[in-house]
Design a protein that fits this description.
heterodimer; A: 338 residues; MetI-like fold; B: 10 helices; 0% strand; elongated
Chain lengths: 338, 295
C-alpha cells in the first residue's frame, strides 16, 4: 500500500514539474517579449528595457524559472497588468463562482447519466437504449457556446423562464455574506431564502449546459458497465434464487458500476475549468473561465500562466485522489496485485 | 475394408468483403453517408454556389433565408450559405489535419516507447502526462496567444494535445502485442526487429488508430470552433463556423437566428455524426471492446 502511494505520488509530482516547465517555456520564450506586450506599441525602448529589468526577463532562463517557482510556492502568482490586481486576488474572487458552477454541473451530469443509463439497460427493449445512446452522441457533438446561445434565446428571451446573461444574481440583488464565496451555499448559511432562490435560478441553466459533455461521457461509461455487470453469474444466481429483477438491479448491479464512475467523474471535474470557459463567457458568469478568455485576448501572461498551471495541478491532484480512493475501495487495482 | 476417403473438401475460407459491415449496420451506413454528404457539400459546394463568401452587399443586409440567399445574409449583406460552405471547409480540413498529425506523431512515439521501453518509455510517458494534464482548449488558447492567433496556431495547439491521446492508447497495445506468442515466436526465429515492428505490430494498431481519429476529429472540430468563437482561431474575414457564431451572436438574440444558427447546426451535425460513426465502428473494429474511448 505504501509503495503504491509513493509511486503514484512520484508520478504526480513529475507530471506537475513537466507541466510547470511547459507553461513557463511557452509563455516566457515563445511570444517574443512579454515586456513589449505589456508596455504596448507606443512605449519607448527605455521603458521596455526598464520593464524587462524589473520583471527579471534579462536573467538566465533557469534563474527565471527558479524565481518563478519560488514565488509560486510563496503564494505569489504574479501581477495582472490588464486589471491592475495581483493574480492571487483575482483567482480568489473568481474561483468560487466557477467552483459553484462546476460542482452543480458535475452533480447534474452524474445523476442524469446514472438515471439515463439505468433506464436504458434495465428496460430490455431496444428503443430506450438507442435513445440514450443518441442523446449522448448529440450531447457530445454539441458546441457548448452555441447551445448556450440557443438556450438563452429559447428559455430567457422567448419563454422568459430563466434570467438573461446577467451573471450570478439579478441586478439590484444584494450579495450574501462572503463565507465560501458560492452564493447558493452562502445564502443558505445566512438563511436568506430569496437570495438563494435567485442565485440558484441564475445557476441552473449554465450548469445544465456545462453538464452536457460530462453527461454524454458518463452515461456511455455507466451503460457499458451495467451491461457487463448484468452478464455476471451473481446476477443469474440471485435471480434464480427468486429475487425479483428490480431489487437485484438496484441493490447489486447498479452500485457495482458506480465505482468505475469515480475516476471518470473526478477527471471531468478537473476538466471543468475548460468546460465552463465558453459557457461562462456566454452567460456573463464572473468565473475563472471568462477571466481567462479576457486575459488571453488582453495578452495578460501572468493570468494565463497561473490558470494553466492551476488547471494542471487540479487535474493531477484530483486524479491522484481518485486513484487513491479507488485503490482503497477496490484492492484489485493495487500495483502488483494479480 | 474400404478406406473411407476423407472428403477433404477444401472450401477456401471466404473472406467477407470489407464493406459487408455496411449492410449489417444500417445506422452506420446512414451516418457515414450523411457525413460524406456534408463533407462533399462543403468541399465542392463553393464550386456550385458561386457567391464570394467575403462579398459585402450593403443593399441586402440581414435578409432572412430566401431563394436568392438560402441561408439569409448577415449584417454586411454577405451570403451566409457561401460562408457556411467555406467555413465548413476550414473546420473539416483543420479537424482532419489535427487528427492526422496526432495519429502520425502519436503512433511513432508509441512504437518507440512500446518497443524500446526503458528510459525512452519513461520519457514519453512523462511528456504525455505533462501535456494531458492541461485541458485541450486552454493549451490551444495559450499557444494561440503565444503565436499569432489563427487557424495555423489553433491546429498546432490542438495537435500538440491530440498526439498524447494516441500515444497513450497505442503504447499499451504495442506492449500487449510484444507479449503475445505470435510476436515472440517471430522474434525467436530471428526476424529483424524492424520487420516485427512494421509487419506484425503496426497493422494491429490500425483499427484503434481509426477509432481514435474519429474521436479526435470530433473533439478537434469543436475546440477549433470554440477558439474561433473566442477570437483566437480563424480571423475575420476568413469564414469558420465558430467565428461565424461570434459574428451572428448579437443577432441571434434579436431574432436573426440564421447567421449563427446554420454554422452551429453544421458543427452539431458534423460532430454528432462522427460520434455515432465512431460508436458503431467500434463494434466492427473492436469487437472485444478493449480500447477505451479517447475523450
Amino acid at each position: 500500500m505504501t509503495s503504491t502511494l509513493l509511486k503514484r505520488l512520484g508520478v504526480a509530482l513529475a507530471t506537475i514539474f513537466g507541466a510547470s516547465i511547459f507553461t513557463f517555456v511557452l509563455l516566457r520564450k515563445v511570444p517574443g517579449d512579454p515586456a513589449r506586450a505589456i508596455a504596448g506599441d507606443t512605449a519607448t525602448e527605455e521603458t521596455i528595457a526598464a520593464l524587462r529589468k524589473s520583471m527579471g526577463l534579462d536573467d538566465n532562463l533557469f534563474v527565471q524559472y527558479g524565481n518563478y517557482m519560488g514565488s509560486l510556492l510563496r503564494g505569489d502568482f504574479g501581477f495582472s497588468y490588464s486589471t491592475g490586481n495581483s493574480v492571487g486576488t483575482l483567482l480568489g474572487q473568481r474561483l468560487p463562482a466557477t467552483l459553484e458552477l462546476g460542482l452543480l454541473s458535475v452533480i447534474i451530469a452524474i445523476v442524469a447519466a446514472v438515471l439515463a443509463a439505468s433506464f436504458a439497460v434495465y428496460s430490455r427493449r431496444r428503443w430506450p437504449d438507442q435513445a440514450v445512446r443518441f442523446a449522448s452522441s448529440l450531447a457530445m457533438g454539441s458546441p457548448p457556446f452555441w447551445i448556450a446561445l440557443l438556450a438563452l434565446m429559447v428559455f430567457s428571451i422567448q419563454l422568459g423562464i430563466f434570467p438573461g446573461p446577467e451573471g450570478r444574481l439579478s441586478p439590484g440583488m444584494l450579495k450574501p455574506p462572503n463565507i465560501t464565496g458560492m452564493f447558493t451555499v452562502d445564502s443558505l448559511l445566512a438563511g436568506q431564502w430569496a437570495t438563494f432562490a435567485n442565485a440558484a435560478w441564475h445557476l441552473l441553466l449554465p450548469a445544465t449546459i456545462v453538464a452536457l459533455g460530462p453527461f454524454a461521457f458518463l452515461s456511455r461509461l455507466y451503460r457499458n458497465q451495467l451491461r457487463g455487470t448484468l452478464r455476471e453469474t451473481f446476477v443469474a444466481v440471485s435471480q434464480s434464487h427468486g429475487l425479483r429483477r428490480l431489487p437485484v438491479f438496484r441493490r447489486h448491479v447498479a452500485p457495482h458500476g458506480l465505482l468505475s464512475l469515480l475516476p471518470a467523474a473526478s477527471l471531468l471535474f478537473a476538466d471543468l475549468l475548460a468546460g465552463s470557459l465558453l459557457v461562462e463567457k456566454v452567460f456573463g458568469w464572473p468565473g475563472v473561465g471568462s477571466m481567462t478568455a479576457d486575459a488571453i485576448i488582453q495578452k495578460d501572461f501572468a493570468v494565463v500562466q497561473a490558470v494553466l498551471l492551476l488547471a494542471a495541478v487540479l487535474y493531477v491532484v484530483v486524479s491522484l485522489l481518485a486513484d487513491l480512493l479507488l485503490t482503497a475501495a477496490d484492492p484489485r487495482t493495487r500495483v502488483g496485485a494479480r | 475394408m474400404t478406406a473411407i476417403a476423407a472428403p477433404q473438401a477444401v472450401v477456401p475460407a471466404r473472406r467477407r468483403p470489407f464493406t459487408s459491415f455496411l449492410k449489417r449496420d444500417r445506422r452506420l451506413t446512414l451516418a457515414l453517408s450523411l457525413l460524406a454528404a456534408l463533407v462533399v457539400l462543403t468541399l465542392l459546394g463553393p464550386l456550385l454556389w458561386r457567391v464570394q463568401p467575403e462579398a459585402i452587399n450593403l443593399g441586402a443586409v440581414l435578409q432572412s433565408p430566401s431563394f436568392a440567399h438560402p441561408m439569409g445574409t448577415d449584417d454586411t449583406g454577405r451570403d451566409v450559405m457561401s460562408r457556411f460552405l467555406a467555413g465548413g471547409q476550414t473546420s473539416i480540413l483543420a479537424g482532419l489535419t489535427i487528427a492526422l498529425i496526432g495519429a502520425i506523431v502519436g503512433c511513432v512515439a508509441a512504437l518507440l516507447a512500446g518497443s524500446m521501453r526503458g528510459w525512452v518509455d519513461t520519457l514519453f510517458t512523462w511528456l504525455t502526462n505533462s501535456i494531458l494534464c492541461f485541458p485541450a482548449i486552454l493549451l490551444a488558447m495559450a499557444i494561440a496567444m503565444a503565436l499569432k492567433p489563427g487557424v495555423t496556431a489553433a491546429v498546432i495547439g490542438l495537435s500538440l494535445h491530440s498526439f498524447p491521446w494516441y500515444m497513450r492508447t497505442l503504447r499499451g497495445e504495442v506492449m500487449r502485442l510484444y507479449g503475445q506468442d505470435f510476436i515472440r515466436s517471430t522474434m525467436a526465429i530471428g526476424a529483424h526487429p524492424g520487420r516485427v515492428l512494421f509487419r506484425h505490430v503496426l497493422p494491429h494498431l490500425v483499427p484503434i488508430m481509426i477509432l481514435q481519429m474519429a474521436a479526435v476529429f470530433g473533439a478537434a472540430v469543436l475546440s477549433l470552433a470554440a477558439l474561433g468563437y473566442l477570437g483566437l482561431g480563424a480571423q475575420p474575414p476568413t469564414a469558420e463556423w465558430g467565428e461565424m457564431i461570434t459574428e451572428g451572436q448579437q443577432f441571434f438574440l434579436t431574432g436573426q437566428w440564421w447567421i449563427a444558427g446554420f454554422p452551429g447546426l453544421g458543427l452539431l451535425t458534423a460532430v454528432t455524426l462522427t460520434t455515432v460513426i465512431a460508436d458503431r465502428a467500434r463494434e466492427v473494429l473492436d469487437p472485444r471492446g478493449e480500447f477505451t474511448q479517447a475523450k
